Amino acid sequence: MAQKEEYPLKKVCIICAKGTIEDVYAALIMANGAVMEGIEAKLFFTFFGLDAITKKQMDKLHTGTVGNPALRMPGGLPFPTILGMLPGVEAGVSAMMKSQMEKLDFPPVKEFLEMIVAGGGEIYACKMAADMFKIRKEDLTEEVIDIITVGRFYEMSGGQGTQIIFT
Amino acid sequence: MAEKVLAEITVNVNSEGYFEDPSQWTKEMAFEMAKEYNIDLTDKHFEVLEYLREKHMAGEQLTIRKVGNSGITDIKGLYQLFPGGPLKISSKLAGIPKPASCI
Description:
The complex is a heterodimer. Helix content of chain A is 35%, strand content 16%. By secondary structure, chain A is of the alpha/beta class. Chain A has one domain (11-65, 79-166): DsrEFH-like (Hypothetical Protein Ychn, Chain: A, 3-Layer(aba) Sandwich), CATH 3.40.1260. The mean pLDDT of chain A is 95. By secondary structure, chain B is mainly alpha-helical. Chain B has a two-stranded antiparallel ribbon with strand order 1-2. The termini of chain B are far apart. The mean pLDDT of chain B is 95. The A-B interface holds A 29, 32-33, 35-38, 104-107, 111, 114-115, 118-120 and B 61, 63-66, 68, 74-76, 79, 83-88, 101-103.
C-alpha cells in the first residue's frame, strides 16, 4: 500500500494588494497565525495594500460599503448599496467593524505588524506600487524591512514547503 | 480520550497531548512535557503558565496579545520562551486545552 507522505508547510509568502479593513486583516491574521505555528512568514504589500503600512493611512482603513453584496445590517437585513453612498456611512460601518474586531482582541494594524515582526515575520513593500503612489521608505512604518522588486520577492519565496498566498 | 503518564501520574489527554482536565496538572508534569520541546522551564516560564491557567479557569479566551499585555513578558519574549508555538506550546505545558483563538 502506498504510504501517504506529509509535507508540512514551512514558509508562507502572503501578498496583500487591497486596502480595506477585511483585506488587510486577512493578510495580517494569516501571517501572524503562521509565525504562531512556527511557520516562517513574509508579508508583501502592493497597490492599495500599501495603505496598511503607510504611517498616515494604516490606522484609518475602511470597509467599502458600496459594491459589497455580503454587507448586511446588524440584524442581518441586506445593506442597500444606495445607503452606502451617503456621507459618513462608510466611516460608521468601518468603526463598527473595528469595534467588533477589538472585542475578539484583534489589535490595530500597527500593533498587529509589531506582533508579526516579534514572531520573526518580515514585512515588505512593492517597489512598483510605491513608485506609482510616490511613496518613499520614510513614509512607511518602521516594521517594513524594505521596498523590493517582484524579482526579489520570488527569490525570497523559494524553498520546499513554501506557499505564495494572494489574499 | 487517551491516557499519558507524566511525573508518575496517569492523566487524561486528547490525541494531541493537551490535558482534558486542567486540575490534574502539576509543575512536575510541565517540566517533563517541556523536555519534548527542549525547553528548560524557568520561573518566567511558570509565570506565563500560571497566568494562562488563571485566565483559562476564568473562562477567558487566550491570545498572544493578552499574554503580551499581562506585564509578565512582551510578545517577543513569549516567542523566546516558547519557540515555534508561543500560545500552543505554552497552553500544552500549562495543562489547559489547545487555544481556540486565531491570534
